[in-house]
Specification:
By secondary structure, the chain is α+β, with helices and mostly antiparallel strands. It is about 25% helix and about 30% strand. The protein has one domain (about 1-175): 3-Layer(aba) Sandwich (Aminopeptidase), CATH 3.40.630. Strands 1, 2, 3, 4, 5, 6, 7, 8 and 9 form a nine-stranded mixed sheet that branches. The model has no long low-confidence stretch (mean pLDDT about 95). Bound molecules: coenzyme A (COA).
């Protein structure tokens, strides 16, 4: 299995992975989001990676640009997601490899912070912690019971612990339907 950057011609297979992984209700919404996200100029710089085995695509992850509003410090930031692994390939470490490869590449390219809105039980294993604890708020209010699902991973040491800033996502992710 290898991880590589996605190409334009992968789009149909990528959308299918998200449909299959997220299921009948959420799948079509997420795959439409993926199509929009991969064509969104406001998401750039964007890192889109696929997991490929025997010329078959079995996983996909994307990291798109976010801005931190009203902060003095210049912090280069991305948001992880969506992430999906084809059902036949789940629980074999592919999701983890996509997350870790993406974070490593972003760290090498000088990114400071990566956000994610997802299951804390999954993302905490990669070093993501509750973002509101350091004062970084999501672009839209999220239900109090999901507060711990709004997370951030610090890639560099120069991150203040007491910011009071809101995050602005790219156009495709900013639709309140995704929050
Ligand atoms: C979540 C997902 C990407 C994980 O990919 P994967 O390749 O199966 O994950 P890995 O093999 O790297 O890791 C599997 C581990 O994650 C756990 N896990 C999988 N999905 C999880 C979830 N939603 N919440 C918490 N833990 C989860 C498994 O129980 C397993 O735990 P273990 O290592 O203790 O056995 C995949 O299950 C998927 O595509 N799910 C549907 C779409 C989705 O929920 N995407 C993420 C949105 S936040």
């Amino acid at each position: 299995m290898k991880i590589r950057q996605s190409h334009d011609q992968d789009i149909k297979k990528i959308m299918q992975i998200h449909v299959d992984a997220f299921g009948a209700k959420e799948g079509p919404i997420v795959s439409e989001l993926i199509k929009n996200l991969l064509n969104d100029p406001t998401a750039i710089p964007q890192l889109s990676l696929v997991a490929e085995e025997n010329r078959d695509l079995i996983g996909h992850i994307t990291f798109s640009k976010v801005e931190i509003e009203e902060t003095q410090q210049q912090l280069e930031s991305r948001i992880l997601g969506p992430l999906a692994v084809a059902p036949k390939a789940m629980k074999q470490g592919i999701g983890s490899k996509l997350v870790m490869t993406g974070c490593e590449q972003l760290m090498q390219s000088g990114v400071n912070l990566i956000f994610v809105y997802g299951d804390p039980n999954y993302y905490s294993r990669f070093g993501f912690t509750t973002a509101s604890k350091i004062g970084l708020l999501p672009p839209h209010p999220i239900p109090i019971e999901y507060e711990e699902a709004w997370m951030v991973k610090k890639l560099t040491a120069n991150i203040p612990n007491n910011m009071n800033s809101k995050i602005k996502c790219c156009k495709a992710l900013n639709d309140p339907i995704h929050w």
